[in-house]
Design brief:
Blueprint (H helix, E strand, L loop, with lengths): L2 H13 L4 E8 L6 E7 L6 H10 L1 H4 L3 E5 L10 H6 L4 E11 L10 E12 L3 E6 L2 E6 L3 E6 L3
């Protein structure tokens, strides 16, 4: 999780304590970078909630064009509890560095940075994904980006 995401979570903790920040990412731009924030709430994400969060983050609007939205069907997975909540669902996980691809009977080691399959486990240190060709364990520290995939 980024420092910026931690700052946003801390800022919202008092005014919108039930709002969870799923992902905060900066999209570079030569003129004005965009800060995209995906939020979730136990009662769902409404336009009114997005507007309240946007208003609470006024100081960030001076540095970024701000986008606040619900995660949608292909919601980002950024924390161990996100992965645990969605065990049994399909996910795509992109790693920071190429990892060995589980493949039975193939000649030579293949490596990839993207894996898609059923999320079969999530501990405090890694996830386990049943990807095409076999099961792969990926430590959270090696995950660059991940999200659910529509089934």
């Amino acid at each position: 999780m980024s420092t910026l995401q931690s700052e946003i979570e801390a800022h919202l903790a008092t005014s919108e304590p039930d709002t969870e920040v799923l992902l905060a990412e900066v999209l570079p731009s030569p003129t004005h970078p965009t800060l995209r924030i995906f939020i979730d709430h136990p009662d769902g994400v409404s336009l009114a909630l997005c507007e309240r969060v946007t208003a609470l983050l006024g100081e960030l609007r001076e540095r970024y064009a701000l986008e606040v939205s619900s995660p949608g069907a292909e919601r980002p997975l950024t924390k161990p509890n996100h992965f645990r909540r969605f065990v049994g669902r399909r996910a795509r996980v992109r790693t920071r560095e190429p990892r060995p691809v589980p493949a039975a009977g193939s000649a030579g080691e293949q490596r990839a940075k993207s894996f898609t399959g059923e999320l079969v486990g999530a501990t405090d240190s890694e996830i386990t994904l049943a990807a095409d060709g076999g099961v792969v364990a990926i430590p959270y520290s090696e995950i660059r980006r991940s999200n659910l995939v529509e089934e």
